[in-house]
Amino acid sequence: MPPVLPAGVLALLLALLPAAAGCTSDLMDDDPDGTARGAAASPAASGRHSGLPEPCGAVEEDRLRELLPEAGPEELTGEPALTFDTGRQAACSWRSPGESGTRELSVEFVRVVSYDPEISDDDQAALDFARSAAERDIPPLAGQDTAGQEEDGDGDTPGSADGTDDTAGSADSSDPSDPDNAADAGGTDSTDGTGESADPGSGDGTGGPAGWSGPAAGTSAPTSPVGELAPRSLEGIGHAAFIDDQLTPTNSGSRRDIVLTFHNANVIVTISYRETTGEDDGEPDSAVLQERVRKLAGQLAGLLDE
């Protein structure tokens, strides 16, 4: 005959059974995959870069003297742009008038942070970069991932919060409600901020930073070179890069704007270089200006690799 439990012990066991069942059910969620509650998918990895170089000091003196050959010591110092958070966005500009023309340079760094747990910072930067290239009609290299250039039914790129325009280009990767990212909420150029990481200063419609003048009234629209110097994707600079080149007639001569954008992991870098010449000086040489900008891009890409 099986042992008989005392009535008090039996009542205690019966009282404890519902509590034990509740503990067990709390451990498991009702998700179809049966995963335990709290065992949510791990967030995407943080970006490689947690800060940005100081832009005015990032450009080596040899590069500056090549880009601004008639600049004096004060002009070579550069003027930093005001941003809300220099750890997220930092820029510097130089201007050098001279007998052979006026030259202007801008360098902008944008550190991309993804607020989508399924998209890493590095992947968001790649999406932002690809969108910037697509907006400029830059053809990708053969075999290059163009996912960031494909739009969904709403016209937004993957990872984009609002599908708005970007500066050094891109999908909106910042949280506009975060005060630290206020510089990234508007999204057009390096001086007023861009959460879209970096479309090279689209403030004037020619690719230069905000504050650079657009085409003069009554002049022809900008034109780009063809052949080997045409706007294109580049190899060997960062993880991906492109260069844009536009020549604009002015009332007294001509102006050439070179914009080179590249990304290294979760940082997007935009270099904007402009040379304006008078009527008697001829057009600024596309090959010469592009080569100067490519050298600077290579130097900055190496800095981010350190």
UniProtKB/TrEMBL annotation:
Residue ranges, compositional bias (Low complexity): 36-48, 157-201, 212-222
- Keywords, sorted A to Z: Signal
Transmembrane segments annotated in the record for this chain: none
The leader peptide range reads 1-21
Which residue ranges does the record annotate as region Disordered? 31-56, 135-231
Keyword flag Signal? yes
> Transcription: is it a keyword of this entry?
no
Q: Where is the composition biased (Gly residues)?
A: 202-211
Q: What name does the UniProt record give this protein? A: DUF3558 domain-containing protein
Please give the organism.
Answer: Streptomyces aidingensis
